[in-house]
Specification:
Shape: elongated
Protein name: GPI-anchored cell wall organization protein Ecm33
Number of helices: 5
Strand content: 35-45%
Subcellular location: Secreted, Cell wall
Keywords: Cell wall, Glycoprotein, Secreted, Signal
GO biological process, one term: fungal-type cell wall organization
Main location: secreted
Structural class: mainly beta
Distance between the termini: 73 Å
Length: about 400
């Protein structure tokens, strides 16, 4: 080896060690400015966490980095306006909280995140990304009008809440293994999940349209609360692993679950003021806990029902008494056939139909066509939608 090489090798080794150290840091690296971001451009993979300082202002570019094996975060920042990268493909955790001036995120190559959590990024209107893989997505209080940069195939949790400008969500997702919540977004929000075949727990509030044509398997619960659509159809859903709740959807006139055979826990359809008949469950045979229907319907049909493990409560302003007496009472203990195992109540022409445990009042003069709140609906006014679902399904 030449004398020159002997001198050069230690220098090269030191440079390599310095490069490795700068791209793999156990402590959090804080970015104050564009210059700090540019200093990381030589790192193809950055192992560690990057925090954007609360005082960082204007546009910020993280060019050069392809992967962040850690967290990229910004919290309580009121001056950052755009966040971009022409190279970033993967982030473990992407967290933005109270970043109130950020209007654009431009990561055209970003395809993979483990968790994405954006809370109160209140002026964010433009998103450019290519995210197809995530364990969890939580986007709350933004100005996004769509999720066009997020097109997941498989995901754990999806939570889209209080994004009042978002009017359309269309995803190619086929499997949701965790919790899906859409709540408090634009009243005209349409949701298209055309390829979704399997899900765990799904809750929808304040949506104008929901399409789940391929959904066949639901391991946990489905909750539809205070939506504005007139019809909900799940043409291929065969069984619900926990509860089915359809409450306070004031324009709903049709529900259809043509292949649904079982609900493992509770079934509640309540206070859907325009729902004149409940006849969209032709194959439903077993309910593993309580059945509770109350509202203004004049027709109710459950032709395949054979077993209700809990209480059975049907109350309506409509004249359904003949159906109660001929179709359901023979299934109750009182009627001698022990297929309804809990307390049996079925009565029509009541002034204020209510949930299990309420006392039906016969219709009198001046009675209004309305439904009294059940215990579940009382909770709806006091809890968030997620809290309501959690309280009911425990």
């Amino acid at each position: 080896m030449s004398p020159l090489m002997r001198l050069a090798l230690p220098v090269l080794a030191a440079a390599s060690a310095a490069y490795a150290a700068s791209c793999s840091i156990s402590a959090t690296t804080t970015i104050q400015s564009g210059g700090d971001a540019s200093a990381l451009a030589s790192c193809t993979t950055f192992s560690g966490s990057i925090a954007i300082a609360t005082g960082a202002a204007g546009p910020l570019a993280l060019n050069g980095i392809k992967r962040i094996a850690g967290t990229l975060s910004a919290n309580n920042n009121s001056a950052l306006t755009t966040l971009s990268s022409d190279s970033l493909e993967s982030i473990d955790q992407f967290e933005l909280t109270d970043v109130t001036a950020l209007s654009e995120i431009n990561f055209p190559k970003l395809s993979t995140v483990k968790t994405l959590k954006w809370i109160s990024v209140s002026v964010l209107a433009n998103l450019v990304s290519a995210i197809t893989s995530a364990d969890g997505i939580d986007i709350e209080n933004t100005k996004l009008q769509s999720l066009s940069g997020i097109n997941l195939e498989t995901v754990g949790d999806i939570k889209i809440v209080n994004n009042i400008f978002i009017t359309e969500i269309e995803m190619q997702v086929t499997n949701i293994t965790g919790v899906l919540i859409f709540e408090g977004n634009n009243a005209d929000l349409t949701i298209k999940l055309a390829d979704l075949k399997a899900a765990n727990n799904m809750t929808f509030q304040s949506c104008s349209s929901i399409e789940v044509p391929a959904l066949a398997s639901l391991n946990d619960s489905l909750v539809l609360l205070k939506n504005t659509f007139d019809s909900f159809i799940a043409p291929n859903l065969t069984k619900i692993g926990n509860s089915l709740v359809i409450n306070d959807n004031n324009k709903l006139t049709n529900i259809s679950f043509p292949l649904l055979t079982g609900v493992s826990r509770a079934l509640q359809i309540a206070n859907n003021t325009e729902l004149g008949k409940i006849d969209g469950l032709p194959k439903l045979a077993k309910i593993g806990a309580d059945l509770d229907f109350h509202g203004n319907f004049s027709e109710v049909s459950l032709p395949s029902l054979t077993d209700v493990t809990g209480t059975f409560n049907i109350q309506s302003t409509g004249d359904i008494q003949n159906t109660c007496d001929t179709k359901f009472k023979p299934m109750s203990n009182q009627g001698g056939t022990s297929r309804i195992q809990g307390k049996y109540t079925c009565i029509g022409s009541v002034a204020n139909p209510g949930g299990e445990g309420t006392t039906p009042t016969p219709t009198g003069s001046g009675a209004k066509k309305t439904g009294a709140a059940s215990s579940l609906n009382v909770q709806a006014g006091a809890l968030s939608f997620a809290g309501l679902a959690a309280a009911f399904f425990l």
